[in-house]
Specification:
The complex is a heterodimer of chains A (830) and B (345). Chain A is α+β, with helices and mostly antiparallel strands and 830 residues long. Chain A has 5 domains: 109 residues, Nucleic acid-binding proteins (OB fold (Dihydrolipoamide Acetyltransferase, E2P)), CATH 2.40.50; 196 residues, Phenylalanyl-trna Synthetase, Chain B, domain 3 (Phenylalanyl-tRNA Synthetase, Chain B, domain 3); 88 residues, 2-Layer Sandwich (Phenylalanyl-tRNA Synthetase, Chain B, domain 1); 209 residues, Bira Bifunctional Protein, Domain 2 (BirA Bifunctional Protein, domain 2, 2-Layer Sandwich); 89 residues, Alpha-Beta Plaits (2-Layer Sandwich), CATH 3.30.70. Chain A is built from 19 helices and 41 strands. In chain A, strand 35 and strand 36 form a beta hairpin. Chain B has 345 residues and is of the alpha+beta class. Chain B folds into 2 domains: 93 residues; 228 residues, Bira Bifunctional Protein, Domain 2 (BirA Bifunctional Protein, domain 2), CATH 3.30.930.10. In chain B, 42% of the residues lie in helices and 18% in strands. In chain B, helix 1 packs antiparallel against helix 2. Chain B is rod-shaped, with a radius of gyration of 44 Å. The chains are: A alpha+beta (830), B alpha+beta (345). At the A-B interface, helix 2, strand 2, helix 7, helix 10 and helix 12 of A face helix 5, strand 1, strand 4, strand 5 and helix 8 of B.
Chain lengths: 830, 345
């Protein structure tokens, strides 16, 4: 809320500088987001007196004026306005002046006559809304003075929190200033001269929904003359961020800013039979609102109606037909209290949120309905004339007494961690108009309210009752009292110390495994990315990535249809991704546009899906490789990333995570993968701690994603412990005391056999003496048949308790040879 | 043959050998000389063949002379060999000279993304104070995201969290990490010290300081007597750990799920508190919101507010990362331009 300091001073004395005041309010919980120097953008605008006003010789609509600006020769200024006359004091923009909107005023020539500046309208200075005439200043305005010195003000931008609707007005903030400084709040004197007949002759009100409109106060003013409100009113409204409209509408807005009471003024002549009915809209009813939009009203909309139909949406916006116009003479004033929830829903439904509805949503002090109606009537009379009808229409004149809230001073101190004496608490509360009294016997403490109410018996603990002022609807439980005590005392007085209470039990961090993987991959040359979880639905359509761990016994399986956002900001980000690979392709595309050809990235993030109407989330590691595997260097030939680099990373990951080496199985399903370059990976332990899919993308997918890279390798992996949980421990084997024996074995097999099959077969037949298997060569060509290949392995044999004999090693090798021949039809090249 | 003439032969042989060794200029020549003089068919052996014609009493004397001469030749060979090797090595070293100022062979290393890195840094600091990490679902239900946090369906404070809803009734994308408070309280008993990092979503147009996806870290501590003074002490430590010795400020804030609520400011990291555009001339920067857990929230968590009390805090990870790394635009984080990411090395 924008608070002009000059206006605020009307209700409370402020001795502090604006900066000091801003800090005090901030420390009290009314955060001042900014200080604006209102009028700072009037540069070189001074008060002048019109000496002469004559017709321009060459233009009917222009005037020649001479203006005394207090010093030097009078200025000759050409002016187009008609409301000027000699003797008036007016704002004069001198040559070189800059007006709001960076408008520069220079010496010019208008229709052949030099003009040494400009006379300003209120609109040009942004202090009133009058763009027609020059702003006429009061006769006593000191000549030659800078306008910003006279009318400039400091405007505080106060962030009033949603629970403090009572402070969304000048009186409310004056109360806060008073709490901070000890000054007294001055209410404006609100008296209404009632010269008309009884209001009941003009207006009757029927509330058919007393739950939704708990009070309706009406007043009537006859014989008003609509026109602009006084300049000082317009200036205040402008400074507070509201555009002046007319004297009657301004009176209503002024009261809203002053007291926090939204009211509405109807053209009384448009209220049929002088009868207002507060009811729900009927099916099919329509209303043209003040913004000249025809609205279909839904049946749960609370409306202000007359016997012929709706004339306003209650608390949100009035109807166009009953709008105040220049011809209006009869004014019906509505000052009501509406149900906050109903107003909030209505505002959302019609996408109509006004200054009024924002205040209604936060709840209204009951008595303000009466005070607001009186104040609007008073100001209407003062600014627009006419006569106010006697009395008010009031559907609920009985105003509730202050609420009482019991609290235990010791509890307040315990919550704050600082014992505060009861006396001090009482005097602190007094500063925010909260009186305290001794608690009568049997008083219970409201610790929490609906929907989880808790009321306790204080037993022998000292208990007080706080008498809550009617405007503080936010003070309802004991902890609210604690906050009042703390904030008035000043949070800066709270002591600070480290907790000395019990520590929680150990819990493994879900970040730990991720940290290990991140460090490993970064060390291997990949850069970490974090991408949007919300993606375009096109991702799935373009990628058609298969479910990556079907059948894997993970705690977080990737299952279910995609989840869509029902109110997305854009279709680009409207569904939750199921895989991360698409996001990585987007990152690749972006960096390709920056001319990057070598991209190696990874992300650890979530996939999302729905299964049986319940959302599921799973955590995945995804990586993408394209371009050079080794960075281009003057002393090395670059080699492009290929599938073997991806496998190298998988094997590195398994080593980092203390897992056995992974196994690979071909995936020949084709699109979106290169049919000959795709595989599924499983770490070979019964717990299946790592599983996933790795592939070079099908060229069609590369093209569809509009990528420049020819070969793109992607992987999406599920790793136990990535989401939560722990990895297996490393169990150390004793260092062999006896040397091992190495043998090389060249296995000739059919092309159709995979390396994994050969290796598994060797392992299966190697017996306990086989320690290690390492492929060191792959050969095709003479003298092998074209349907054959040779895989050369180095095998290491050994035992813990002895050096093996030649015969033992040969025996083991022979078993392997036989196994290979039997299982795979392989033979050994000698 | 007599001793004198034989001895003279031996000495002449030695002189010849030493002269040739001195002239030898490569290891092969030296080897040749060794064979020529000391080998089985070498000069020395040939001379000694005449030893048989000497009287027996002279033979040991000739033997001694021969040994002396043999040793002298060996030493000369070794010395010359060493000379030649060291000359050759010196030559090789000169020849092997490289331009050591050429750049090295690049070892590829990637970079860690600043968001998880900042989360790790925050977790490390609070970890020292016993806070353990939990994670909650990102697709939340309205009950946990709002209602159990004391935000009724039509609460005006809902405006603070513009929400993205999903096509599962009653579910939404969590607007903050605060629902994790409920989940932690429901799954464990005090003493609680929990940290909840994660991704959040809001219906918010994207610009340099807003995004519809962002990250938060939530903290929760509940025990008998956990007070606002504990909160203040801990947050001071946190601010000092992250930003060095700077003034901090506790002031009232507002959240429906804390009472009292706190806004926590540190002295502006750009201007040091003098006032600059980065801190709206206030000299302060708000780095997180906090407060004492509202009794309603404790009750939803299954914790008796008469026995236990606690605090919670929540911070924007991007906000912290911005301050740590002077990142000018929030969009950098999820855009993943490598020219940005590769600066975090």
């Amino acid at each position: 809320m924008r608070v002009p300091l000059g206006w605020l001073r009307e209700y409370v004395d402020v001795q502090l500088s604006p900066e000091q005041l801003a800090e005090r309010l901030t420390l009290l919980g009314m955060e001042v987001k900014g200080l604006e120097h209102w009028g700072a953008d009037w540069r070189s605008v001074v008060v002048g007196e019109l000496l002469t006003v004559e017709k321009h010789p060459h233009a009917d609509r222009l005037h020649l004026t001479t203006v005394n600006v207090g010093s030097g020769e009078p200025l000759h200024i050409v002016c187009g306005a008609n409301n000027i006359a000699p003797g008036q004091r007016v704002p004069v923009a001198l040559p070189g002046a800059v007006l709001p909107g960076e408008r520069r005023i220079e010496r010019t020539e208008k229709m052949g006559i030099a003009s040494e500046g400009m006379l300003c309208s209120g609109d040009e200075l942004h202090i009133t809304s009058d763009a027609e005439g020059i702003l006429i200043l009061p006769p006593a305005t000191p000549l030659g003075r800078d306008l910003s010195e006279l009318y400039g003000d400091v405007v505080l931008d106060v962030d009033v929190k949603p629970n403090r609707g009572d402070a969304l007005c000048l009186i409310g903030l004056a109360r806060e200033v008073a709490a901070a400084t000890g000054a007294k709040v001055r209410w404006p004197e609100i008296t209404v001269q009632e010269a008309g007949g009884p209001v009941s002759d003009r207006l009757s009100v029927e509330v058919r929904e007393p739950q939704l409109c708990t009070r309706f106060v009406g007043r009537w003013v006859s014989g008003v003359k609509i026109g602009p409100s006084p300049d000082w009113v317009q200036m205040r409204l402008q400074a507070a961020g509201m555009r002046p409209v007319s004297n009657v509408v301004d009176a209503s807005n002024y009261v809203m800013l002053e007291l926090g009471k939204p009211t509405h003024t109807f053209n009384g002549a448009a209220v049929k039979e002088g009868t207002i009915i507060v009811r729900l809209a009927l099916p099919g009813e329509r209303l043209e609102t003040l913004d000249h939009v025809q609205r279909e009203l839904t049946a749960d909309t609370l409306v202000i109606a007359d016997p012929s139909g709706p004339i306003g949406i209650a608390g949100v916006m009035g109807g166009a037909d009953s709008e105040i116009t220049d011809a209006t003479t009869e004014i019906a004033i509505e000052s009501a209290v509406f149900d906050p929830v109903s107003i909030r829903r209505t505002g959302h439904r019609y996408a109509l949120r006004s200054e009024a509805s924002l205040r209604f949503e936060k709840g209204q002090e009951f008595r303000l309905a009466r005070i607001g109606a009186d104040r609007v009537a008073q100001l209407t009379l003062a600014w627009a004339g006419g006569s106010v009808a006697k009395g008010r229409v009031d559907t609920a004149p009985e105003e509730p007494a202050s609420a009482k809230l019991a609290f235990r001073p010791a509890r307040v101190g315990k919550l704050l961690g600082a014992p505060i004496s009861t006396d001090e608490q009482r005097s602190l509360l007094r500063r925010v108009d909260v009186d305290t009294e001794p608690a009568p016997a049997g008083t219970r403490i409201q610790v929490a309210v609906e929907p989880q109410p808790l009321v306790v018996d204080p037993g022998s603990e000292e208990t007080l009752v706080a008498v809550v002022p009617t405007w503080r609807r936010d003070l309802v439980v004991e902890a609210d009292v604690a906050e009042e005590v703390a904030r008035v005392r000043g949070y800066e007085t709270t002591p600070a110390h480290l907790p000395d209470t019990l520590m929680p039990a150990y819990r493994p961090s879900p970040l730990r495994v991720r940290q290990l993987i991140r460090d490993t991959l970064v060390g291997a040359g990949l850069t970490e990315v974090v991408t949007h979880a919300l993606v375009s639905p096109l991702h799935e359509a373009r990628l058609r990535w298969p479910a990556d761990d079907d059948g894997v016994a993970f705690p977080e399986p990737a299952v279910g249809d995609p989840i869509a956002v029902t109110n997305p900001l854009s279709t680009q980000h409207s569904v939750l991704r199921r895989q991360l690979v698409g996001s990585l392709l987007d990152v690749l595309a972006l960096n390709e546009r920056q001319g990057r050809a070598d991209v190696a990235i990874f992300e650890i993030g979530n996939g999302y899906g729905r299964a049986d109407a319940a959302p599921r989330e799973w955590t995945r590691l995804s990586f993408l490789l394209t371009g050079s595997a080794e960075p281009a260097s003057w002393n090395r030939i670059a080699s492009p990333y290929d599938l073997d680099d991806a496998k190298g990373l998988l094997e590195l990951l398994c080593r980092s995570l203390a897992l056995p080496a992974p196994g690979y199985a071909p995936d020949t399903r084709g699109f979106p993968f290169h049919p000959g370059r795709a595989f599924s990976v499983r770490e070979q332990s019964p717990d299946e701690i790592l599983a996933g899919r790795v592939a070079e993308l099908h060229p069609d997918v590369v093209q569809e994603w509009d990528l420049r890279s020819q070969r793109v390798i992607v992987a999406e992996l599920a790793i136990l412990g990535l989401g939560r949980g722990r990895l297996p421990r490393i169990h150390v084997a004793p260092i062999p005391r006896f040397p091992g024996a190495e043998r090389d074995l060249a296995v000739i097999v059919a092309e159709s056999r995979t390396a994994a099959e050969v290796q598994t077969t060797i392992a299966d037949h190697g017996g306990v003496l086989l320690r290690r298997i390492r492929l060191f060569d792959l050969y095709r060509g003479n003298p092998l048949a074209s349907t054959e290949k040779s895989l050369a392995y180095r095998l290491e044999f050994g035992a813990q308790d002895r050096t093996l004999t030649e015969a033992e090693v040969d025996g083991a090798l022979e078993a392997i040879r036989k196994g290979l021949a039997a299982d795979l039809g392989a033979h050994i090249r000698s | 043959m007599d001793f004198e003439s034989l001895s003279g032969d031996l000495h002449r042989l030695m002189d010849l050998a030493l002269a040739e060794i001195a002239k030898a200029d490569d290891p092969a020549a030296l080897e040749q000389l060794q064979i020529q003089y000391l080998g089985k068919k070498g000069g020395l052996t040939a001379v000694l063949r005449g030893i048989g014609g000497l009287p027996p009493e002279d033979r040991p004397r000739v033997g001694a002379v021969a040994n002396e001469i043999g040793e002298a030749v060996k030493i000369a060979l070794a010395e010359r060999g060493a000379q030649l090797r060291s000359a050759a090595q010196a030559q090789r070293l000169v020849a092997e000279k490289v331009d050591v100022t050429l750049p090295g062979r690049t070892v590829r290393r990637g970079t860690l993304h600043p968001i998880p890195e900042t989360i790790a840094a925050i977790a490390e600091i609070f970890g020292q104070f016993g806070f353990v990490v939990y994670e909650g679902p990102e697709v939340e239900d309205d009950l946990t995201n709002f209602q159990m946090l004391n935000i009724a369906p039509d609460h005006p404070a809902r405006d603070l969290w513009d929400t993205l809803y999903v096509d599962i009734p009653g579910r939404l994308l969590r607007t903050h990490t605060s629902p994790g408070q409920i989940r932690v309280m429901q799954s464990t008993r005090p003493p609680i010290r929990a940290l909840l990092p994660g991704r959040c979503f809001r219906y918010e147009a994207v610009d340099a300081s807003h995004g519809f996806e962002f990250f938060q870290v939530e903290g929760l501590m509940v025990d008998e007597g956990t007070s606002m003074a504990d909160l203040k002490g801990l947050l001071d430590e946190f601010a000092h750990a992250l930003f060095g010795p700077r003034k901090t400020r506790f002031r009232p804030g507002y959240y429906p799920f804390t009472e009292p609520s706190v806004a926590f400011d540190v002295e502006c990291v750009v201007c040091g508190g003098v006032g600059c555009p980065a801190c709206s001339k206030t000299g302060w920067m708000t780095i997180l919101g906090a407060g004492m857990v509202h009794p309603v929230v404790l009750q939803y968590g299954g914790i008796d507010p008469e026995r236990y009390q606690g605090f919670a805090f929540g911070m924007g990870v991007e906000r912290i990362a911005n301050l740590r790394h002077a990142v000018p635009d929030l969009r950098y984080y999820l855009e993943n331009d490598l020219r940005f990411l590769e600066q975090f090395r």
